[in-house]
Each structure stands twice: as C-alpha cells, then as structure tokens.
Amino acid sequence: MSLQNRVTPRGEIVASGGRGLMMGNRGILHDDNRRIVRYSQVRRWITCLTEYRGIRRVVMRPHSWTELFFLDEATAFAAGHRPCAECRRPDYRRYCELWATCFGEPVGADIVDRQLHQDRLAGPRTKRTYKAQLADLPDGAYIADVDRAWLLWGDALFAWSPLWYTERRKRSGNREVDVLTPRSTVAVFAAGYRPAIHPSAEEVARQ
C-alpha cells in the first residue's frame, strides 16, 4: 500500500505509487503509524534532492520530518515550496537572486518563506489561486482547468498525474485562467528561472 506522501500541484498530500524527481518537507506531518495528521507544521516549505552525499533516510520515521515527493520541480513550486538552501544551494541562490531582481530588495530564506506562505494559502489547507491571462504566464507555471492541473511549457499544456504527464494540449490563444503556482514564484520564472520538468513531458510531446 502506498504511503500518503506524494504532493500535487495544489499542495495536497496524497497516496500514490512512484517517487518522482524531487523530495521535500514541511516539518513533521505524520504520526507513529506513518499516517498524515497535519497539512503543515512549519512555514519553511522546501524542495530537496532525492539523493545527497549518500545520506539514507527511513521514510516517515517516528518523530522526524516527513519526506514528501513531487513529480518534478515545477510541481513542487506550484504546491508552494522553494529550493533547499543546503542540498540545492546553486538553485536556491539563483531563485533568491531573481527574486531580488523582481521585488527590488535583498532576500533571504525568511523573506521568501514569509511571502510564499501568504501566496500559497488562502486559509487552513486551502490553496490560494489567482487569475491571469494565459499568454502572460511563463514556462513552468501551473494552471487549473476542468478540475485538472496543467503545466505550461513551450507551446503546450501538459496534464499532471502522480506518476507522469499524461496529455498534451496546444497552448494557443489567450484567456483568463486560474494560476496554481504562487504569484511570487511566477514572477521569478518570468525573470528567468527554469524549473526541472519530468521527462514524460517530452515523451508525451513526441506522441
């Protein structure tokens, strides 16, 4: 039986097979029986490498932070996470540098985490979304359409699933859409940050 530790672009924590490309955490979310009992414990939501310096962890070990898994980096960003400053130092620095370019202030983890916390949640366990024109959104952003989450990448939209991208649609025309990726992260994408994407997007594009 799959553990409840896969994160959707909406930030929900669900049970699903497969691990994805990225790992992350929001603090200790599980009980001694490895059941999820809270949505978040801390404001610092990070995204980590699945392998780092040979460190091996027991998933959902009692009284230790809960290992969460994401299909890819774009999914983690949509959920409201940001790069870890330890295992992903270059990505963290790049993200912060572009953040400062966007918002005109020196930036560190506390500033980023405080703003992301406001951007990702409208209330307890309630995802904050906002409206934008499809043509104005950068690659890497996620939108919600017909109860599905879609990645914007190049000239296409890719339908998210826990294991891989399942469908491709042409990104054409312009319309108002519901954006899942936090507003501040979308700005960082527009400034030049390119999130890592699961290879299944390329496979679907070739079909």
Describe the structure.
By secondary structure, this protein is of the alpha+beta class. It has a domain at 93-206. Helices cover 24% and strands 24% of the residues. It has helices at 73-79, 89-103, 109-120, 183-190, 200-206, and strands spanning 4-7, 13-15, 22-25, 46-49, 68-70, 82-83, 121-123, 126-127, 130-133, 142-145, 148-153, 156-159, 168-170, 176-179. Strands 9-14-10-11-12-13 form a six-stranded antiparallel β-sheet. Strand 1 and strand 2 (13-15) form a beta hairpin. The relative contact order is 0.18. The mean pLDDT is 94.
Which key features would you list for this structure?
single chain; 207 residues; alpha+beta; six-stranded antiparallel beta sheet; four-stranded mixed beta sheet; 5 helices; 14 strands; globular
Short synopsis of the structure:
The protein has 5 helices and 14 strands.
**What is the chains' assembly state?**
single chain
Number of strands: 14
Sheet of most strands:
6 strands, antiparallel
Shape: globular
Identify low-pLDDT runs: none
What amount of the residues lies in strands? 15-25%
C-alpha-based Rg, rounded: 16 Å
Helix/strand-derived category reads alpha+beta
Mean pLDDT: 94
N-to-C series of helices and strands = EEEEEHEHHEEEEEEEEHH
Instruction: Estimate percent helicity.
Output: 10-25%
* Order of strands in the sheet with most strands: 9-14-10-11-12-13
- State the end-to-end distance: 32 Å
| Total number of helices | 5
